[in-house]
Structures are given as structure tokens and as C-alpha cells.
Amino acid sequence: MDRMIYTALSGAKQILDQQAAVSNNLANVSTPAFRAQVNLYRAVPVVGPEAGTRAFTVASTPGADMRAGPLTYTGRTLDVALQGNGWLVVQAPDGTEAYTRAGALQVAQDGQVQTISGLPVMGDGGPLAVPPGSQVTIGTDGTITARGPGEASAGLAQVGRLRVVNPPNDAIARGDDGLFRLRPGAQPLEADPTVRVISGALEGSNVNPTEAMVEMIANARRFEMQMKMIQGADGNEQRANQLLSTN
């Protein structure tokens, strides 16, 4: 009976992990450019001298749903969204290169272009910066132009270009901080000039709240089934002990 308990226990554990991923997705339904977490598991047959009637449940490599979220037009010149599979390049707190599609940008007091969380946005030559107090516009090719206070339209100057990459979906993975990074062994990414930048718009989360709620209910039913299997195995064990104790 203990074999049945361990088999059901492995399934229950993976269902709890799946439920945690779905709950996290539902909590981020309003987070800009959030990619839904995909937590997979699979059955692995138990190899041994006995008949192959048992299988444990093990986790597969977690991933993310890379489908684009809906666009919301804000009219703010520093809000950008990316067409297709493009990603903005930012500098992570540890100095490494990371990728995001959250395009709510801002200009710090020193003129540095940052994400809303304060991460430096990278250009072709490094972190982007504009003259403090200037009016900034972003073109469809990612070109950033700035005009100083009081200057005429002839005073527009190109100060840099957003570094946008277009990696294969299996080449990047999400970190604990929500940023995506290259998987070990993946080739370094070059800027892709074909990715179009949409100024004045933000991408929303690609989490479907209705699907997430249905998945939570389904996971609860699966977990309940595993618990019934454990309870049934425990009841059988107790009855077997009673029979043995009467002899």
C-alpha cells in the first residue's frame, strides 16, 4: 500500500506546484507585458523487477507563454510596445544584460532613460541618456530624439536608439525578478532593426483570467483525487493490520 501512497503523493506535489504557478499568473493579470508561467509535469514509469504498473510524476522544465498581450494606447511619448517577438534590452542590477517587454519608460533627473522600475535601458552603444529637461520622442525604428526646453522643431537631435533583440522563444528564460535572460549555451543576441516600435502604447499581460480560474478549479479537483487515493491506501493498510492482528 505504501507504493500507492508514494505514487499519489508525487502527483499531489506537482499539482500544488501547478496551482502556485496558476495563482501567480492570476495575480499578474494586470501587470504590463507579463508572460504567463507554464509549469509542466509528466509521468515517469517506475523501472524495477515488478510489473510496470506504477508511474511517478516529475516536473518538466518550466517555461512561459510567449504570446503577445493586448495593446493599450496611452498617448504618452515614453510608452513603447514592440511588434512581433521583439524585446527591450535593459541592464539588470547585477550589471548583466536582461530583456523585457514592459515599455513604460521614464527619464531620470540625470537624463538616463530607465524602465519604470529604475533599470537602465540599453542602446546600441550602452545605457541611453538624453539632455535633462528635454522633450523626448521615440520613432518606429527605436530612434530617440530630444528637443531642449524652448527650442524650435529644428533643434531636434538624435541621441540614440533603443537596442531591440528578437530571440527564439526557447533561447530565453524568466528569472526570479521577472526579467528574461539567455539560457546557458545560447548564442549572444544582436540588435534586430526589423522590429517595429509602437510609441504611445503599452502591452498588457497575456494571462486570460477566465482560463486561469478554470485551471485553478481543475487543479483543485486533481489534488482532491490524489488525496482520496492516499486516504484509500491508508484505509486499506489499517484494515490489513486489523486482519493480521486477529490471527
Characterize the structure shown:
This protein is of the alpha+beta class and 247 residues long. It has helices at residues 2-27, 209-246, and strands at 37-38, 41-45, 55-59, 63-64, 71-73, 80-82, 87-91, 97-100, 105-107, 113-115, 122-123, 126-127, 135-138, 143-147, 157-161, 164-165, 172-174, 180-182, 197-199, 201-203. It folds into two domains: 2-66 and 207-246, no CATH class; 71-203, no CATH class. Helix content is 26%, strand content 27%. The strands form nine sheets. A three-stranded antiparallel sheet has the order 8-7-16, with no helix packed on it. A three-stranded antiparallel sheet has the order 13-14-15, with no helix packed on it. A two-stranded antiparallel sheet has the order 1-4. Strand 13 (135-138) and strand 14 (143-147) form a beta hairpin. The two termini are 20 Å apart. 23% of the residues are buried. The model has no long low-confidence stretch (mean pLDDT 86).
